[in-house]
Amino acid sequence: MRKKQALTPSAAMSKKKNTGRPKRARGVKSNMVAAAVELAGGVTVVARLCGVARQSVYSWIQEWRVERLIDALILARASGIPIERLAGDAFKPETIPAAKSPALSHEPDGEPE
User: Fold this and answer.
1) CATH number, domain at 65?
2) Does any domain span residue 48?
3) Of 68, 74, 69, which is closest to residue 37 (Cα–Cα)?
4) Residue 71: inside a domain, yes or no?
5) Number of domains in the chain
6) Residue 15 included in any domain
7) For residues 74 and 83, what is the distance between their CA atoms, to the nearest angstrom?
8) Nearest to 40 by CA among 20, 60, 21, 24
9) What are phi and psi of 110, to 5 degrees?
10) What is the pTM (predicted TM-score) of this model?
11) If I label 78, which of 15, 32, 47, 93 is the partner at 20 to 30 A Cα–Cα?
12) What span, in angstroms and rounded, lies between the C-alpha atoms of 94 and 29?
């Protein structure tokens, strides 16, 4: 009769789901959204300020950024942390599309003269 081998904890567990903070190339970064939420008074207070569900605030903390700029602005003002640290890529000037002004357009508006 063969002896049963005890499974080691690592062999018994499946691969972990990656839900932690994003991997960074260098240095240790802190979750500024989580810090801002704590400084503003907690998840419930921030959810009421922004008019969203508490689950939305928890998803911001998990994603390390605030999706909507208006919510990032409210959180920045309530916590004192700059909006650039909360909004992520949404606040970078190169990602904001430039508005086209009709006054600067060189195309004719009507029929050719």
Assistant:
1) 1.10.260
2) yes
3) 74
4) yes
5) 1
6) no
7) 9
8) 60
9) -120, -145
10) 0.58
11) 93
12) 23
